[in-house]
């Protein structure tokens, strides 16, 4: 390694390993910046793996389409020619034993054709690479940051995979998901299973909180035994993913920036008849266009499904966003609705759900 005295920067080489605490304060926030100069389009990613070196929790995979971990321990933001990852190592759960920093090519090129690649940790550590360090790789692991004996260490890996990001993720027990699909109004698609079931289906709502501070996410549900009800944070009716109704709503953590998330236990599809997902603005004037809301439906064997809301300029506070319906007790379909109403009772009446309403407070 080589120290740049004027800049207090230590340059590390491929194969280097060392204690991060020698260079940065691991108790606080650390910035890791990755850049590549070249003629292709490059994607950057940081993901956490467990003690078995497996990507067992994809909520800790940071990239352009998932920018924050569940409690904000990790975050991603694009930069000119690269990406910045903000790390709070002391806040990571014990299940995350290592962070892997990768770069991959979105195109036909190889890493042998890049002009330069850098990985910088804070203002203290830098790894510099060029195309001469690679050949036909389409995805590389630049650096790993890992736990050892209650300390965090850094390893300059600088090796790659000819098969691209798919092969890299497979090495860690993960897989590359297909390109997301965007639904049009009244468009319906069927969710595929994995062979053992549909798995967990998550429905996440994010929006521009500078325009509209509070948007609620909830659902009406109907089970095949005739049970009907509603879940929403208003009134603390948040359900249970492992018991009837096999649907749950996460507590809202405003600081995390992860929006609101509803979970549907897809392995209990034979018990679930219908789920109507709604959103509700309960403070200020309704401004769906300005709120720029996006609902993302994620499930194990399917591409993410996007339901964009900004093209609708209704002044009504309540929006019926999507409907999940049972298909032969073996699958669920999802349909984009985007119907607007004054309130909960009007929505319920329109869809003839058959439940009674009372008053609640947020």
Helix fraction, binned, reads: under 10%
- The CATH topology annotation of the largest domain reads as Lipoxygenase-1
Shape: elongated
What is the CATH-assigned architecture of the largest domain? Sandwich
Q: SS-based structural class?
A: mainly beta
Number of strands: 26
Tally of DSSP helical segments: 3
**Low-confidence runs (pLDDT<50, min 5 residues)?**
1-7
H/E topology pattern: EEEEEEEEEEEEEHEEEEEEEEEHEEEEH
Average of the residue pLDDT scores: 88
Beta strand %: 35-45%
How would you characterize this protein structure?
The protein is mainly beta and about 350 residues long. It has 2 domains: about 1-170, Lipoxygenase-1; about 180-350, Lipoxygenase-1 (Sandwich). The protein is about 5% helix and about 45% strand. It contains 3 helices and 26 strands. The protein has helices at about 165-170, 290, 345-350, and strands at about 1-5, 10, 15-20, 30-35, 40-50, 60, 75-80, 80-85, 100-105, 115-120, 125-130, 140-150, 150-160, 180, 190, 200-205, 215-225, 230, 240, 245-250, 260-265, 270-280, 295-300, 300-310, 320-325, 330-340. The protein has a 7-stranded mixed sheet with strand order 1-2-11-10-4-8-7, with no helix packed on it. Strands 14-24-23-16-21-20-19 form a 7-stranded mixed sheet, with no helix packed on it. The longest helix has 8 residues, at about 165-170. The radius of gyration is 23 Å and the shape is elongated. The N and C termini lie far apart (about 55 Å).
């Amino acid at each position: 390694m080589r120290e740049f005295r004027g800049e207090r920067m230590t340059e590390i080489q491929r194969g280097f390993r060392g204690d991060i605490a020698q260079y940065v304060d691991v108790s606080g926030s650390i910035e890791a910046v990755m850049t590549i100069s070249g003629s292709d389009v490059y994607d950057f990613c940081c993901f956490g793996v467990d003690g078995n070196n497996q990507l067992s929790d994809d909520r800790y995979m940071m990239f352009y389409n998932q920018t924050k971990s569940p409690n904000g321990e990790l975050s991603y933001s694009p930069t000119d020619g690269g990406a910045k990852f903000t790390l709070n190592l002391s806040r990571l759960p014990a299940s995350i034993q290592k962070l892997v920093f990768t770069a991959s090519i979105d195109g036909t090129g190889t890493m042998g054709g890049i002009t330069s690649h850098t990985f910088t940790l804070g203002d203290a550590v830098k790894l510099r690479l060029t195309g001469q360090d690679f050949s036909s790789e389409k995805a590389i692991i630049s650096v790993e940051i890992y736990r050892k004996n209650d300390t965090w260490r850094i390893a300059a890996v600088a090796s790659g995979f000819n098969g691209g990001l798919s092969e890299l993720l497979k090495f860690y027990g993960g897989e590359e998901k297909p390109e997301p699909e965007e639904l049009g109004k009244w468009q319906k698609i069927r969710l595929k299973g994995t062979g053992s079931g549909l798995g967990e289906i998550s429905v996440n709502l994010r929006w521009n909180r500078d325009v509209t501070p509070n948007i609620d996410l909830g659902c009406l549900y109907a089970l095949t035994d005739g049970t009907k009800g509603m879940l929403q944070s208003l009134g603390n009716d948040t359900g249970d993913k492992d018991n009837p109704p096999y649907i749950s709503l996460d507590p809202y953590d405003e600081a995390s920036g992860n929006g609101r998330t509803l979970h549907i236990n897809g392995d209990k599809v034979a018990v679930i008849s219908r789920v109507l997902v709604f959103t509700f603005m309960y403070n200020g004037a309704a401004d769906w266009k300005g709120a720029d809301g996006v609902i993302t439906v994620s499930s194990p064997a399917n591409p993410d499904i996007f339901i964009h809301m900004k093209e609708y300029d209704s002044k009504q506070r309540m929006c019926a966003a999507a409907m999940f319906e049972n298909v032969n007790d073996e699958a669920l379909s999802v349909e984009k609705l985007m119907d607007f109403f004054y309130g909960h009772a009007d929505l319920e009446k329109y869809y003839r759900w058959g439940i009674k309403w009372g008053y609640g407070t947020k």
